[in-house]
Amino acid sequence: MWYKPIGMAIKRGNTKKRNNRKKTSKRHNGLQLIGLWIARVTVAFFIFSIFWVVLLIFMNPPITYLQLKRGFERKSTGKEWKIDKKWVDYENISDNLKRAAIAGEDAHFLTHHGFDTQAIREAFLKNKAGKKLRGGSTISQQVAKNVFLWPERSWLRKGLESYFTVLIEVFWSKKRILEVYLNVIEMGQGVYGAEAASKYYFYKSAISLSKKQAALIIAILPSPNKWDARRPSAYVNRRANSIVRYLNYYKIPD
Fold first, then answer.
1. Residue 130: alpha-carbon gap to chain centroid
2. Mutual orientation of helices 95-105 and 139-148 as an angle, nearest 10°?
3. Overall pTM > 0.85
4. Angle formed by the axes of helices 234-246 and 211-219, nearest 10°
5. Which pLDDT does position 9 carry in this prediction?
């Protein structure tokens, strides 16, 4: 009869609608589940990162990604494994080196909140003009990169660097930031931190560095694997002399 095909068509239409609703519901549930896991992972990351930063107020970083990377790079080129480092407390680092680090690397260290907008602007303009880029990273940013992240450049790493910079500026004192910086930064081939660098270059402890010796160590930091504080190039020597000249203008955290 004529009404049977019509009824069957209506039934098929209703079934199709129910199936579409089920598919839509499944998709919606799937998106909700993905969103829930993203939220959980994000919250877990924030909790873990804050815990990590707070923990390092009381505990010294045992090793960094860069130190391990450099060690493996040395082995791959046939050189000996070398991670020369020794932690020394803030009080056992020469004030000359503390001032030299601020004078040479981050003139506004004590007054900024992690980011030196003036230095960033100058670095951007130099890069735009095609000049050699020195960079606008503060000591705080360098600590964030060295302690918590990896050295390769990418937008992801830069974003995380900014995030960890904010965290350490919130939770750490300037004194702690400078202490960590002077203990983990790369200062030569397989040499990390003030104590190891002082003994490697000048055969003395970090607390005994003269103004010129401290300035020479800081002067090589742009390329510590290329330059040598014992045999400074003309450029390094000029940079060190400039740091010495302005050394006493800079205060250090108490």
1. 25
2. 100
3. no
4. 130
5. 47
